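The instructor's notes for this session suggest beginning with a concrete chain rather than abstract definitions. Hand out the sequence below and ask the class to guess, before any prediction is shown, which regions might be ordered.
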Amino acid sequence: MLDVAVIEDPAAAEVSLDPVRARLLSELSVPGSATMLAAKVGLPRQKVNYHLKTLERYGLVELVEERRKGNVTERVMRATAASYVISPIALAQVQPDPSRAPDQLSARWLLAVAARLVRDVGQLITGAAKARKKVATFAIDGEIRFASAADRAAFATELAEAVTALVGKYHDETAEGGRDHRVIVAVHPSVSTETPAPGKES
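After discussion, reveal the predicted structure:
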C-alpha cells in the first residue's frame, strides 16, 4: 500500500468522490471483504460488492487474497493507498493556470501555484513509480507568528531577497547534463479555529 496515490484519471476521480466509495476506501486501509464492510457501513453485501468492483476497475482497491467459505469465494480487498490526492490534470480544461494572473500577493494565484505543484509532483510520482525510482524533492513546512502586518511584509521582502540570492548563486544555465528544478516559497495565514475573519487581520 502506498502512503499517497495521485488520481489523474477524471473517471477515477469521480468514482473516488462518491461518499459511499470514499467511506469504503477509508475502511479498506485494513483489508476486508464485502461481508465485513457491509456490517460496518450498513449496506447490503451485494451493493458493497458493486462499489468494490468499481473501485477495483479504477485501481483504487486491490485483491489481497481469496478465501473459500463453502460454495462461496470471499474476496479480501485493500485500498491501494492510505490516502489519495486528485491531480488538477483530472480537471483538464479548467485546471488552474498561474500564468493567467501572476500576482504574488493574490491568494487565488497562490492556490493556482499550489495546484500546479500537486499536478507536477503527482506526475513525477507516477513516473517514478513506473520506473521504480525515487523522486528527489525537498520541502520546508513550519509556522511563524508575526507581531504586525509590517513585520510580515518585511519578512516577505527579506525572504524574497534571500531566495533570489541563492538562485543566482546556484543557477547554471550552461550546466551540461543539469536538470531544471522549480522553487516555490509560500507564506499564508495558518488555518485554525483562531484564524481571524477576513477584514479583522492585523
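Then share the key points. Residues 33 and 97 are 42 Å apart (CA to CA). Residues 107-131 form the longest helix (25 residues).
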